Amino acid sequence: MEIPSLSDIKRAHTRITKYIVRTPIMTSQTINEMVGGEVFFKCENFQKVGAFKMRGASNIIMSYRPEDRVNGFVTHSSGNHAQAVALASKVAGAKAYIVMPENAPQVKKDAVKEYGAEITFCEPTEEARVAACAKIMNETGAIQVHPFHDPRIIAGQATCAKEFIEEYPDLDFMISPVGGGGLAAGSALALSYVSPTTKMILAEPSNVDDTYRSFKSGKLVGVDSPESIADGLLVSVGKLNFEIIKEHVSEIYRVEEQEIVDAMRLIWERMKVIIEPSSAVAVAALLKNKKQFVGKKTGLIITGGNVQLDALPF
């Protein structure tokens, strides 16, 4: 697996343009005053399927010729990537097989089903997800669309940061949550190509801090029993993703569960925008470390807005 080039990212953007939304960038005077700088929010919660994942999934699926899609596509995901693969497969006229942990939010399970995918539920462990996915591949011949460990996923997710910098080329920092690392690696890579003076910062729940520990040690460290309200980040960072993160990320901040909840509520109340807990991880990191961003221009990626409305944490 080779690290995507700038040409790969540009080709991905061209390939997926008609399948995605060029999401808006919003600001909040209240948050600017809280931070003491200018903060810009790239709202991927307004993306198709309600999350940035549509970018990477579309890039992989649409890169296959129609005759190569006959056996469909398979993936494992707790929700947003599952929805993206389901919708992109539907648009491509292909079958989608989705492995989801039993504890995935009901709102995400329902959305995957509505897109016409066939769902297989499994135990909420990474090993169970991978095993169930492999079984379906063997039985159906479906092509795997990995949630994050794939250069085509990374290139697709990188288009978000590319759009961000095209509109705001003078950002001092960009902040993204990190789980498997597709968006994190893609964003860091895009900045290294088109805006090398913009520093990439990642945010992670303290309960699921494998990327932070890997970053500090220089060696890939997994997470055994991930538990966090940020359900989209309950996976270990991928190997290729980590290689990019090691090279191109400036810092990784950890945040606590209550800080995530407080940040989520703040965006709901002040900006009137629905964001999910995984997105709030980046907001929490911004607020927790706001001294670093005083007088600076900071771009923050709101990764998704798929929330179980009858089970809000506030």
Characterise this structure.
With 314 residues, the chain is an alpha/beta fold. It folds into two domains: 6-51 and 150-311, Rossmann fold, CATH 3.40.50; 54-144, Rossmann fold (3-Layer(aba) Sandwich). It has twelve helices and ten strands. It has helices spanning 6-16, 29-35, 53-61, 80-91, 106-114, 126-140, 151-167, 182-194, 210-217, 239-248, 257-271, 277-288, and strands at 25-26, 38-43, 73-76, 96-101, 118-122, 143-144, 173-177, 199-205, 251-255, 297-302. The strands form two sheets. Strands 1-2-10-7-8-9 form a six-stranded mixed sheet, with helices on both faces. The protein is globular.
Topology of helices and strands:
Elements: H1 6-16, E1 25-26, H2 29-35, E2 38-43, H3 53-61, E3 73-76, H4 80-91, E4 96-101, H5 106-114, E5 118-122, H6 126-140, E6 143-144, H7 151-167, E7 173-177, H8 182-194, E8 199-205, H9 210-217, H10 239-248, E9 251-255, H11 257-271, H12 277-288, E10 297-302
